[in-house]
Amino acid sequence: MILVTGATGNIGRELVTQLAQTGKPFSVMVRNAAKAQAMLGSIPNLKIVEGDVSKTQTLAAALEGVERAFLLTPSDFRQVDQQGNFINAAKAAGVKHIVKLSVVGAAPDAPTQLMRWHAQSERELEQSGIAWTHLRPHVFYQYWLQLVYPINMTGGFYASLAANVALPAIDIRDIATVAVRCLTEPGHEGKVYRLTGPEALTNVQVAEKIGKVMGKNVTYSYMPPEHTKAGMMQMGMQPWFVDFVVGMDEAYSTGRYSDVTYDFYRITGRQPISADQFFSDFGGFIKNPPQFDMSAFAGGAPQVNPEELKAKVIRLYDELNHNNFDVLYEIMDPHFTAHGETMGLDPSDKDHLAAVARGIQWAKWVFPDLYVSVDDLVAEGDKVAARLTWRGTVTQEVYGVPPNGQTIEWTGMAINRFENGKIVERWFNSDEMGMMRGMGLLPPMGGGAPAPAADAQPAAAPQTDLPASSPVGPQVSNSELEGNKAIVRYFYEHVFTEGHVEKLKDIMDESFEDHGEALFGSAHGRAMLEGGIAHMSKMFPVKAVEVMDMIAEGDLVGVRGVMTLVHSADWLGRAPTGKELKWNGLSIFRIKDGKIVARWFNSDSLYILEQLGYWPVNK
Questions:
Q1: Residue 577 has what pLDDT?
Q2: In angstroms, rounded to a whole number, what is the distance separating the alpha carbons of residues 78 and 309?
Q3: Does 306-439 match 478-611 in CATH topology?
Q4: Helical (H) or strand (E) element with 536
Q5: For 386-398, b where at least 16 C-beta lie within 10 A, e where not — what string?
């Protein structure tokens, strides 16, 4: 059985139409079966199943019996997570081959976020063990149809693509043709197909062709990126979409993406549809377009107020400080999904919200005076990253260790994703090892936090009322936010993955402070971090670092990442095993004048011990 995602979009509908002509049975996965039935119900050999890439619990049923799948999700700031959800579910369901719709220029070091997002999903698919094919099409001809609306109002159109740069656009009908071949024929596994039309055209040339169809003069004007963004925002388009469109134009303007390729001909044996043929086929639409629907541009990401989302996160912890557990059901979705550490969560648990409630109740039993402070909040889109500190006095015996009566403190971080005003997903890491040492469950280890001195100050007094919002430093432009993200991305790609610790000086201020967890000691400066990374890379060479989330606001950047390490040297008396270890972590970076001045970090360090057999907990 073949499964098609994105079947109600332009490419998906064309793919479904062509796939039906093969006579092979197939299914389409949609969020609303009734709407899809009205749109696609007349197509033969088609079965409609419901599933949502944002809701992992819906995917298993949709993928039942599927051998091959076409993966297409709308351009969205959540697309890496969404495609990752699908890939993981497909692997669990035994899917043998996924054909992924990607984008021209997809690469980890690409100049635009959209290209990097697709590269990240491509990599995840390649590492899943499922056979894969990547389709990287260029700009679609069908985009030109949208230009008739501004042309009818002003006599032309504008963009931030340099007027002298030509792009080899392609018809979505040809993209669908290649997808059908990849889904129904052998021999496409492990291939990357770069799909373009037969010629490259500048926007000036496109304007001339549209004008010929309309029977009037049509002009193209180059507009600086900031002006284009301002105009699109005034039309009500979402900020993420504006950044995506203008960012791609800026990348195209370099001329690096202007080459015509011949992959379509090699696969099909014919030339791709020409621009002149496209304008002939769609001349009627261009001359008499239907009423324009702006929701096509504004869709994908609901209007959200980051300050409202941050206020909900603060209210959640504030009410829990006051033992109001009902707030969990007020702010968190009933189908909430927990990722990372969650006390009381068993791998077989389906009700993650109930598991979170159990874990909090257990913690309140061990630490009756437990309270949390919210130290930083960073919001972007539908996600809020929180930096947290817990404090409490150990009063109960845990795992056979009697209570020591100490008031201990440990740190944690969470990234919460909201949907319809409620938290639907959370990624969480805390300093578990620091907490367990404070409780006496783990002995001190080399590199760990020192034992508190006899004259150490007691923990700070509990916060009875958390602040309404958390400062994130000066407000900055979208380009500055992207610059801050690029600095953090450089940190992971060149320092960690490539091992160039000497490059820390290029991106870190002399006064840099690293606030880690008990495994590393805290706080420390750049020199200690440099030495620590170099030392760790000898024992655990870094195979890859995948940045799964990056959230920027003000001068802060929140990050969720997964590091793949290889156990290659003796560690704590354990001989090298050659095992690949997964290390999940959350960080918040503060950037000032183009340099990292501080980092706060929490990871699933206890899981590292578990993977090597040091800790018996089955997480």
A1: 85
A2: 16
A3: yes
A4: helix 526-539
A5: bbbbbbbbbeeee
Report, at the CATH architecture level, how domain 306-439 is classified. Answer: Roll (3.10)
| pLDDT over threshold 70, residue 299 | no
Across 439-458, b (16+ Cβ under 10 Å) vs e yields bbebeeeeebbeeeeeeeee
Query: Domain 478-611 carries which CATH code?
Result: 3.10.450.50
- In terms of DSSP H, where are the helices of 45-166? 59-62, 79-93, 113-126, 148-154
Question: Nearest Cα to 142, choosing from 28, 251, 40, 9?
Answer: 9
**Residue range 109-131: mean pLDDT, rounded:** 93
Supply the pLDDT for residue 92.
Answer: 95
Give the type of residue at 83: Q
Q: What is the pTM of this model?
A: 0.54
What values do phi and psi take at 7, rounded to 5? -70, -20
CB 24 within 8 A of CB 45: yes
The pLDDT assigned to 617 comes to: 44
Share of the chain above pLDDT 70, in %: 87
- pLDDT at position 401 is 84
DSSP states of 342-409 as a string?
Answer: -TT--TT-S-HHHHHHHHHHHHHHH-TT-EEEEEEEEEETTEEEEEEEEEEE--S-BTTBPP---EEE
Tokens of 563: 């590091």
The reply to whether CATH 3.30.70.1290 applies to domain 2-298 is no
Length of the chain in residues, anyone?
619
| Average pLDDT along the chain | 85
- 3-state helix, strand, coil split of the chain in percent (to 5) is 35, 25, 35
- Whether 348 and 44 have beta carbons less than 8 Å apart is answered as no
